């Protein structure tokens, strides 16, 4: 079973903003043709009911271009405050399935090793990790899939809940640092292999 190393809210200080660095956008690397983690998870979500009838994944850039833009802005802003992280390390492919994590921290003291970094910008009401595991299974399996692809067993999800607690709190940011077991990572990968042919290739 996975280990939640920490779940904590992020409070930005003026020094965080003043210390931001200008990111050098990685050289344009087109997504490879074929099957991607996101496409397989979308197919699974529709088939097994992770998404309710008529519901769409809020990360879908074609249906929600403004949400997608907000996600891109948040990702770049976050990594501009974390210059020690490798932003956009590049696509990884195994067994004909490709994926692109947002970043990698090569050494994290609290994790005791390398960490996959993933950012989300969401209109969801702020969630505990336990709630996220139930509500956002696509996110959970995305994180585990990246672990398999990049050979790292720990992930940090940084979620910007831009509607906060839905009671006027304003945006709230929460970090979740999780160490996954080898079984969890392999179980997710086996699931992706099983469903690979149902995804729409790119």
Explain what the structure shows.
This protein is of the alpha+beta class and 202 residues long. It is 34% helix and 25% strand. The strands form 2 sheets. The chain has a 6-stranded mixed beta sheet. Strands 2-5-4 form a 3-stranded mixed beta sheet. The longest helix is centred in the middle third of the chain and has 16 residues. The mean pLDDT is 91.
Task: Furnish the topology, listing elements before pairings.
Blueprint: E1 3-10, H1 14-18, E2 35-36, H2 37-48, H3 65-80, E3 86-87, E4 92-94, E5 97-99, E6 103-108, E7 113-122, H4 129-135, H5 137-150, E8 154-161, E9 172-179, H6 182-195
Parallel strand pairs: 2-5, 7-8
Antiparallel strand pairs: 1-9, 3-6, 4-5, 6-7, 8-9
Helix pairs in contact: 2-5, 5-6
Describe the structure in brief.
By secondary structure, the chain is of the alpha+beta class. The protein has helices at 14-18, 37-48, 65-80, 129-135, 137-150, 182-195, and strands at residues 3-10, 35-36, 86-87, 92-94, 97-99, 103-108, 113-122, 154-161, 172-179. It contains 6 helices and 9 strands.
């Amino acid at each position: 079973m996975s280990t939640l190393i920490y779940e904590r809210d992020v409070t930005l200080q003026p020094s965080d903003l003043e210390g931001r660095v200008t990111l050098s956008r990685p050289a344009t690397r087109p997504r490879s043709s074929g099957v991607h983690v996101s496409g397989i998870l979308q197919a699974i979500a529709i088939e097994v009911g992770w998404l309710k009838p008529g519901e769409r994944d809020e990360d879908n850039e074609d249906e929600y271009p403004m949400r997608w833009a907000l996600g891109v802005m948040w990702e770049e802003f976050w990594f501009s405050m974390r210059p020690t992280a490798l932003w956009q390390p590049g696509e990884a492919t195994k067994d004909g399935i490709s994926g692109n994590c947002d970043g990698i921290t090569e050494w994290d003291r609290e994790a005791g090793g390398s960490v996959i970094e993933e950012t989300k910008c969401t209109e969801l009401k702020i969630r505990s990790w336990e709630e996220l595991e139930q509500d956002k299974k696509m996110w959970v399996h995305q994180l585990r899939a990246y672990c398999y692809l990049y050979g790292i067993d720990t992930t940090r999800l940084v979620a910007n809940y831009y509607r906060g607690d839905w009671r006027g709190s304003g945006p709230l940011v929460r970090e979740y640092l999780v160490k996954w077991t080898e079984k969890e990572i392999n179980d997710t990968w086996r699931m992706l292999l099983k469903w690979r042919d149902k995804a729409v290739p790119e």
